[in-house]
TrEMBL record, chain A:
Phylogenetic lineage: Bacteria, Bacillati, Actinomycetota, Actinomycetes, Kitasatosporales
InterPro entries: 2Fe-2S-bd, 2Fe-2S-bd_dom_sf, 2Fe-2S_ferredoxin-like_sf, 2Fe-2S_ferredoxin-type, 2Fe2S_fd_BS, Beta-grasp_dom_sf, Diverse_Oxidoreductases
Source species of the chain: Streptomyces colonosanans
Domain spans labelled 2Fe-2S ferredoxin-type: 12-88
Alphabetically ordered keywords of this record: 2Fe-2S, Iron, Iron-sulfur, Metal-binding, Oxidoreductase
Molecular function in Gene Ontology: 2 iron, 2 sulfur cluster binding; metal ion binding; oxidoreductase activity
Pfam families listed in its UniProt record: Fer2, Fer2_2
Record pathway: Alkaloid degradation; nicotine degradation
Identification of the protein by name: (2Fe-2S)-binding protein
From TrEMBL, chain B:
GO molecular-function term, one example from the UniProt record: iron ion binding
Keyword Phosphoprotein found: no
Top-level division of the source organism's lineage: Bacteria
UniProtKB keywords: Molybdenum, Oxidoreductase
Pfam families: Ald_Xan_dh_C (PF01315), MoCoBD_1 (PF02738), MoCoBD_2 (PF20256)
Cofactor needs: Mo-molybdopterin cytosine dinucleotide
Domain Aldehyde oxidase/xanthine dehydrogenase a/b hammerhead stretches: 24-138
Organism: Streptomyces colonosanans
Lineage: Bacteria, Bacillati, Actinomycetota, Actinomycetes, Kitasatosporales
Record-given protein name: Xanthine dehydrogenase
TrEMBL record, chain C:
Record keywords, A-Z: FAD, Flavoprotein, Oxidoreductase
Name of the protein in its database record: Molybdopterin dehydrogenase
InterPro entries recorded: CO_DH_flav_C, CO_DH_flav_C_dom_sf, Diverse_Substr_Oxidored, FAD-bd_PCMH, FAD-bd_PCMH-like_sf, FAD-bd_PCMH_sub1, FAD-bd_PCMH_sub2, Mopterin_DH_FAD-bd
Pfam families to which the protein is assigned, alphabetical: CO_deh_flav_C, FAD_binding_5
Length: 179, 790, 282
């Protein structure tokens, strides 16, 4: 029995900035970011789907941009701002943000396993390209796999959210919520 | 008023109850279950397709840092998993599937040993230290090899490598019908081996609860009670001593409706170690070593008269089921479905079929959304198109002449079809494509030398199989009924249980809609419990589009019974007969005095806290249970799919330009959910038609171990789908609903294939095998091939 | 699909990196964006004993036009940075490079994957490798032994093999001259997949007539290749179709599950012609 609680290979202390909170993790360097988020930090909203960067279930934001958390070691994420699906809803009330609401209104999820990845993909993308057309959105949605929806309602949800955000900006309001 | 029809929730796109937790990352999937002291398991898997196991040496494995234990089949000494059909040995050969391979491996990826370590990383380190000595045997990797005289045998007991061989119907005089028919068309089709591919792979977390004297097994399964039965038998525990809990599940599509070996081995390891053990299948294993489906070979012919009326259908179906029969369905699942239902929506007067399941050295198969229907619908629809060409008829018109229009209709397959909208859906689908201008555009494109094709598929889909229908398949374990319990607490909140288990189908919403209507309560007061063998007395789970038809009916009956009890208690308080009361918005009301009401909370207080007030004939408490089963042939949903494709000469790419689905699943409990099922199903059908396939080389090595090789289509490949609804309510489900889970997948391959062939019309090449790759299309577009004659 | 153990070293700067590589030898592997490497490590197809993380080397994340009009790209520049870079940074005549980014995987791959990482990985279907061969880019490699410059034609050796030594890192890639009439196109069954065949052309043209050019193909050999036979057709004033035909005739792509030799040759004809037309439409 080697069940001594040893972590096997050399262990390091990492400081990760996750959803605006600084977290310290002691881990071996071979642990991927998604495993550290899920199992060390217990942020289980980010899912593991393929561990080779194709399905996108593990998509999170690193410095605001969507990345595959399975293709990054946690050690590489030190000094970067990490954002996961747990950050989207209002932390006080739990109220869904406009993107999340658009997903539910358009039935953009069924089993919900791929959903956090799509949400973070869309969140990162729309921040960078608020003026994205529906065709551009479709191209970006093609980055992740969903086995339930056939994608159409995911595209429609993101497009509706982007449209509502643009309308709101045009109306000169500060708030970024869509109905 | 709640009783007014427009006040009902059934039929409305009620917002999903599941969404808030899934959208915020607070769903709980099996990999999210974390228990103190939990260990992580992975499996040593066979690297060869067929071999005797000479030695499995785990000595080095146990030395690997972080590894806690490693077990072979000998170490764990578990019972086998054996699926049975009640058919003679000439028709079905049962084969045992050991939880871990004992003395023989039969496919690449077969589990040989379980390695348990402090984390998944160390477990994988452990796998690399295993020493397995194989005495390799010649692998059987395709139908031709399997059926060749003197072929190596995958299972000694299955001579000719055949697990199922049934010949059915054989209408008298069918040979003469074919001999004398003015038109006979043939189709030989092979369909690719697919993976149902839920985004969440399989997985389990098991631990021994000493206080409850119970093994608790969290696992993502569509059949929790079946897993409990198998676990209890393999581990030699009473069923009571096994509790299967299904958390949120990331899709299943059939792959999770059979009992897997790994979840049983994980449970065994937890039992042995008295520590929680988690196993999460990685994608490489999910692609190569879990359950696959759909590799079938059809040799079919159909006879027609000069007017295009079908005279007979004669088919031979061979399904390559891989190395083992799945539990509980057996290797019969695909050939029996195809054989029983192939005549489909057409008035076929004569029918003969031989259906076989063969065994090969490939990963075993499980039911996958649609089970054989995507394949045989494709074959029948190809026969229709081919006959139309041969007879110079319009392909829609030939369908019109043959489609069932009078119901109930008892087919040549002895199945009685309940009313549907077969012809209406076909007409509406054609009309939709015409009105959208596709026929005009096709003609214009053809004039320019472009290849645009239009294709249809018509089908019906048996849903709501009851025990009668499953028993007709001669299953030894006969699914069918479902149980529901509804109970109300003193706050007036309703808990309802169902033996079905949602994994994307939105049961928490749709079942709650049904209950809210039946009880006249606010939907927010209703909570569904599913997927826990301790909370749910018994259930058959979710497969075969049975959840809303059978499960939803049981839930409605239970809720109605609970409503009756509420009325009885109120009636007793008022001293009037229950018939003079009615349910109304969370209350019971006197019919003769609309202002006299008693709230659910008040009645529940009587039932629980002041039971001395109850009359003697009313038991304390507010619970009701109900069972539902279907005692006829089930209810048939139907649809027509219409597809427009363009084939690109430069690359051979098939581009889907338009997709129309006209579907009828009876009463849609939640139309948005139904549309979601259609679109998702269609995406999977397109995937099978154009993209996905696992092939095996001559050594039995699978081609697809990553998403680079297994080409799941993305938003770029899957088109928008226009859906039209028709509604022919089912007469014998409690809600009028028919199943809606599989139709999309069933209709898509045939429609896509027909559209591709329509686009290829000028080349005289016809393609009948799937998936149709760009290279196949390219070859068709560039060669003046005449190898297939219409 | 968990990687084998390794020791992690976070390099502070280029000097530190080269010192680490010199010390650790063949057992070390440089990780930049890791979009290919981590996937291979998760499959345990790659199992370096040491991983040298150069993610902190900000000095290698740059992009700009040099004095001679050449485009200089730091090895750590991500595909995404190139994709969104404004014209004044990327330079006139380098649209082919910006547009080619859309073919690399998907957005979440491009946000992490780097130019240097892609070049050093040396995949024969990689867009960056094809661009480098087409435009004969120059690679600047550094080690403790010093800096050296390698031309693209001498950089790619074979399947996933480059001229980089184990103790060297790529610091910069220089695309020597603008290519105003150039384009890259490719085909795969699914958007975002590795190309079955990719084609890139760089035409010498005054905007009306073409009097020469370069043609390069990916997915037809162990590394991207220039096709002299097709270039000769362009130089002789032949049509794009003839140029594409010549390209298909000149190579002998090995067939595999993603496409036979015959099919790849057909794709070459389609894609070379398509690339020529796109290049001229600029």
């Amino acid at each position: 029995m080697n069940d001594t609680g040893s972590l096997g290979d050399d262990v390091q202390l990492l400081t990760l900035d996750v959803n605006g909170t600084s977290c310290e993790v002691i881990t071996s360097p071979r642990r991927t970011l998604v495993d550290v988020l899920r199992h060390n930090l217990r942020l289980t909203g980010t899912h593991v789907g393929c561990e080779h960067g194709i399905c996108g279930a593990c998509t999170v934001l690193v410095d605001g941009l969507p990345v595959r958390a399975c293709l990054m070691f946690a050690a590489q994420a030190e000094g970067k701002q990490l954002t996961t699906v747990e950050s989207l809803a209002d932390p006080g009330t739990g109220e869904l943000n406009d993107l999340q609401r658009a997903f539910t209104e358009h039935h953009g999820l069924q089993c919900g396993f791929c959903t956090p990845g799509f949400l973070m993909l869309a969140q990162g993308f729309l921040t960078e390209r608020p003026e994205a057309t529906k065709e551009e959105i479709r191209e970006v949605v093609a980055a992740n796999l969903c086995r339930c929806t056939g994608y159409q309602t995911i595209v429609e949800a993101i497009d509706a959210c982007a449209t509502a955000r643009r309308a709101q900006r045009a109306a000169g309001t500060e708030e970024t919520s869509c109905n | 008023m709640r009783s007014a029809k427009d006040d009902r929730l059934v039929g409305r796109a009620v917002a999903r109850r599941e969404d808030p937790r899934l959208l915020t990352g607070h769903g709980r999937f099996v990999d999210d279950v974390e228990l103190p002291g939990m260990l992580h398991a992975q499996f040593v898997r066979s690297t060869v397709a067929h071999a005797a196991l000479a030695e499995v040496d785990l000595t080095q494995v146990r030395q690997v840092p972080g590894v806690v234990a490693a077990f072979t089949a000998m170490d764990l000494d578990l019972g086998d998993i054996t699926a049975q059909l009640g058919r003679p040995l000439t028709e079905f050969v049962p084969t045992a599937m050991p939880v871990l391979a004992r003395d023989r491996v039969r496919y690449v990826g077969e589990p040989i040993a379980i390695v348990v370590a402090i984390d998944a990383y160390a477990a994988e380190d452990g796998l690399e230290a295993a020493k397995v000595t194989y005495e390799t045997l010649a692998p059987v990797t395709c139908e031709d090899q399997a059926l060749a005289p003197g072929a190596p045998l995958v299972h000694e007991e299955a001579t000719h490598n055949t697990l199922v061989d049934v010949s059915l119907f054989a209408t008298e005089g069918i040979d003469e019908i074919f001999d004398n028919a003015p038109c006979v068309v043939r189709v030989e089709a092979r369909t690719g081996r697919q993976n149902a591919l839920p985004l969440e792979t399989r997985g389990a977390v098991a631990h021994w609860d000493g206080r409850e004297e119970q093994l608790v097994l969290h696992t993502c399964t569509q059949v929790p009670h079946q897993v409990r039965t198998v676990a209890s038998r393999c581990l030699r525990l009473d069923e009571r001593a096994v509790r299967v809990i299904v958390p949120d599940m990331g899709g299943g599509f059939g792959l999770k409706c059979v009992v897997g070996r790994e979840e049983i081995a994980t449970a065994a390891a937890a039992l042995r170690l008295r520590r929680p053990v988690k196993w999460i299948e990685d994608r490489k294993d999910a692609l190569s070593a879990s359950f696959l489906a759909r590799e079938q070979h059809y040799t079919a012919r159909a006879a027609f008269d000069v007017d295009g009326r079908i005279l007979g259908l004669d088919a031979d179906v061979v399904c390559d089921m891989g190395a083992y029969s799945c539990y509980p369905f057996t290797a019969g699942i695909e050939p029996l479905m195809a054989s029983a239902e192939m005549s489909g929506v057409y008035k076929v007067p004569a029918y003969r079929v031989r259906g076989r399941a063969i065994t090969t050295n490939k990963a075993p198969t499980a039911p996958y959304r649609g089970v054989s229907r995507p394949q045989y619908v494709m074959v029948v629809e190809r026969l229709m198109e081919r006959a139309a060409r041969a007879l110079g008829l319009d392909p829609v018109e030939i369908r019109r002449r043959n489609i069932i229009t009078e119901f109930p209709y008892t087919g040549v397959n002895n199945i009685t079809y309940d009313p549907g909208s077969y012809l209406e859906s076909l007409n509406l689908c054609e009309q939709a494509l015409k009105e959208a201008g596709w026929y005009g555009r096709q003609a214009a494109a053809r004039a320019e030398g472009r290849h645009i094709g239009i294709g249809y598929s018509c089908f019906s889909e048996r849903t709501g199989y009851g025990s009668t229908a499953f028993a007709a398949r001669k299953m030894e374990v006969v699914p069918g009924f479902d149980l529901a319990e509804a109970r109300m607490d003193t706050s007036g909140a309703v808990t309802v249980t169902s033996g079905t288990i949602s994994h994307g189908q939105s049961h928490e919403t749709t079942m709650a809609q049904i209950v809210a209507d039946a009880l006249h309560v606010d939907i927010a007061k209703v909570k569904l419990h599913q997927g826990d063998t301790d909370r749910i007395t018994y259930g058959w789970g979710t497969f075969a589009s049975r959840s809303i038809t059978v499960g939803g009916s049981a839930v409605r009956l239970a809720a109605a019974k609970l409503g009756d009890k509420l009325r009885a208690i109120a009636a007793a308080e008022w001293g009037i007969p229950p018939e003079e009361t009615e349910l109304d918005r969370g209350r019971v009301r006197r019919r003769d005095d609309p202002d006299a009401v008693l709230t659910h909370e008040h009645l529940a207080e009587t039932a629980y806290l002041k039971s001395h007030l109850l009359p003697k004939d009313i038991d304390p408490g507010l619970t009701a249970t109900a069972a539902f089963d279907v005692f006829n042939d089930g209810t048939f949903s139907n649809a027509t799919h219409g597809v427009v494709v363009e084939l690109h000469e430069g690359t051979g790419q098939v581009e889907i330009l338009a997709y129309v689905c006209v579907e009828d699943c009876g009463v849609a409990i939640n139309p948005q959910v139904v549309e979601g099922q259609c679109r998702g199903g269609i995406a999977q059908g397109i995937a099978g038609a154009l993209f996905e396939q696992v092939t095996y080389d001559g050594q039995g090595e699978p081609s697809a171990t990553s998403f680079m090789d297994y080409k799941v289509p993305t938003a770029h490949e899957i088109p928008e789908v226009t859906i039209h609804h028709l509604e022919t309510p089912c007469a014998f489900t409690e809600t009028g609903a028919k199943g809606a889970g599989e139709g999309g997948t069933i209709g898509a391959p045939a429609a896509v294939l027909n559209a591709v062939n329509d686009a290829l019309r000028a080349t005289r090449v016809e393609l009948d095998n799937t998936p149709i790759t760009p290279e196949t299309v390219h070859r068709a577009l560039t060669s003046p091939a005449l190898e297939q004659t219409p | 699909m968990k990687p084998a153990p390794f020791r992690y070293h976070r390099a502070r700067d280029v000097e530190d990196t080269t010192a680490l590589l010199a010390e650790l030898g063949d057992d070390a592997k440089v990780i930049a964006g890791g979009q290919s490497l981590v996937a291979m490590m998760n499959f345990r197809l790659a199992r370096p004993a040491h991983l040298v993380d150069i993610g902190c080397l900000r000095e290698l994340d740059h992009l700009g036009v040099g004095a001679e009009g050449e485009l200089r790209i730091g090895a750590l520049t991500t595909h995404h940075t190139v994709e969104i870079s404004p014209p004044h940074k990327l330079g006139a005549g380098f649209d082919i490079i910006r547009d080619a980014m859309a073919w690399i995987g998907h957005v979440p791959i491009r946000t992490r994957g780097t130019v240097g990482g892609s070049m050093a990985h040396g995949d024969s279907t990689a867009e960056w490798c094809l661009l480098a061969v087409l435009l004969d880019a120059e690679f600047v490699a550094q080690s403790l032994r010093g800096q050296r410059r390698i031309r693209a034609r001498e950089f790619f050796f074979g399947y996933y093999t480059t001229a980089l030594d184990a103790d060297e890192i790529l610091v910069e890639i220089v695309f020597p001259r603008p290519a105003p009439h150039a384009a890259l196109t490719e085909f795969a069954e699914r958007r975002g997949d590795f190309a079955i065949v990719s084609a890139a052309v760089d035409l010498d043209s005054d905007g009306r007539a073409v009097h020469g050019g370069r043609v390069a193909l990916g997915g037809v050999a162990a590394m991207p290749v220039r096709v002299q036979e097709a270039e000769a057709v362009l130089a002789a004033g032949g049509t794009f179709r003839d140029c594409a035909k010549a390209a298909a005739a000149a190579v002998d792509p090995p067939g595999d599950a993603n496409g036979s030799t015959q099919y790849r040759k057909h794709l070459i004809r389609t894609l070379v012609e398509r690339a020529c037309e796109e290049a001229m439409s600029r």
